[in-house]
Structures are given as C-alpha cells and as structure tokens.
Amino acid sequence: MIFVGEGALLRRAVTHAATRGHPVDLVCSADPLDAAAAAAPHLAAADINAHAAALARACSDGIVWSLNNRQIFREPLLRADGLRILNIHNGLLPRHRGLPSVAVLFALLHGDTEYGATAHEVDAGIDTGPVLAEHRFPIGPEDRYHQVMLRGIRACHALFEQILPAVAAGTSHPARAAAAEPSAYYGLRALDRLDTYRDHPGYARATDLGPFAAHAPELTRALLPHRG
Fold it and tell me: Are 200 and 109 in contact (CB under 8 A)?
C-alpha cells in the first residue's frame, strides 16, 4: 500500500501499518522521515497526479491511503489501473467537506453538536466519494477549536486502525453515498466570511487555535484583523 500526506497523522498510520505486517510500498510526503518506520521508499511530489504510473507500478496491493493530505487527486491517477484510493478525512462527510482547519472553526460557529472522522473512497470531487465508515464524537457547549481539532485528529487515527484490516482484506464496502446527507464545503474562501461572525457568542471559542495556530497559518492570517 501507498501513503500520501504529511505530518504526525501520516507517520503514525505508516508505522501502524508496518508493525501490523502490511506492505508499505511507498510514502509520498515532504519529509523522508515519514517513511523511516516502515523502511519504505519515499517520494516528495509537489503534484502526486504527475506520478500516476510510478504509483501504479509500486503498489503491491492496489491500496492508496490519503491522510492529512492537501493535494487533490485527479486524472490520470484516479483512473490508474488497479488502484483504490481511500481518504481519512478530519470531519463528518459531507457536512464538513474541505479543509479541516476551516471546517472545525465553522462547525463551532454553526453550533454543531458533533464532529468526527470519515473514511471514504476518493472520486473526482472533493470529499464526495462513498463513505466507508465514521468515528463520531460530541462537541460540548464549552469546547474550543484546539480541543475539537485534537479530537478530530485522534478520531482519524482510530478510524484508520479500525478499517485497515478490512481494507487490506478487500472486505470493506461503502456504507452510504457521501451525498446522502446535507453538504457544506469549507475552503479558504470561507474565511472571507469571518468578519460577519465577529459578534457571534461562540466566536472566542471557535477561534481559540491554541497549539494549532502554528499549523494553520491560513487561519492565523484571517484572524489577525479581528483581534484587538
């Protein structure tokens, strides 16, 4: 199997798969150390889609995992023979499509009472493929951004561990289409609406980034004009 993404979530998934005896054929990320625990080949690719043929050749079981990955899969990778691309998304789909860093903020501003992680098939849309499984948790009335984001990351890893055996065995199947529930997309443009929430009673907790401020520069920049 091949892993695409970045950060601690990717590294933990690679380590878990390797220690459970699953083949780690290639790790595609910015940091070569992400592949070290599995003693696997590493590929730093600014555009993963440009390496579709190489991924198809390298993958021994046809499974490609996307974890904490900001790259969008497109053709020719999406139609590469024998590859099944699965994404572990920080958010409940399709309610929290897009960037998790933005989705968590708006989940709190919109008064969502639960959040979580979703495993889904990757298709030509953004977070629109059939859902395989979910890991949900409640959002408390006093929960802050950094708390929900951390629980979301932990839910992603727990979900990966949960579905890995079935995916590897070829027995995992879509539970439902992602479009079966109300959908919302949170990209960088959604941050342009932040000024309208300045007087929102949940604004302080929704923008309390905590240690994640260093990992979400797009949010830090968007919030600067609103802090006084």
Answer: yes
Domain 2-226: give its CATH code: 3.40.50.12230
pLDDT digits (tens, 9 = 90+) for 149-186: 999 999 999 999 999 999 999 999 988 777 777 899 99
In the DSSP assignment, the letter for residue 188 is: G
Output the pTM of the full model. 0.94
Q: Where are the beta strands (DSSP E) in 174-218?
A: 185-186
How far is Cα 206 from Cα 110, in angstroms, rounded to an integer? 10
Residue in the structure block whose two tokens are 């980034």 = 209
Q: Using an 8 Å Cβ cutoff, are 15 and 37 in contact?
A: yes
Strands (E), the chain: 2-5, 26-28, 42-43, 63-67, 84-90, 97-98, 114-121, 131-138, 185-186
- DSSP 8-state symbol, 176: B
For the chain, domain boundaries: 2-226
SS3 66: strand
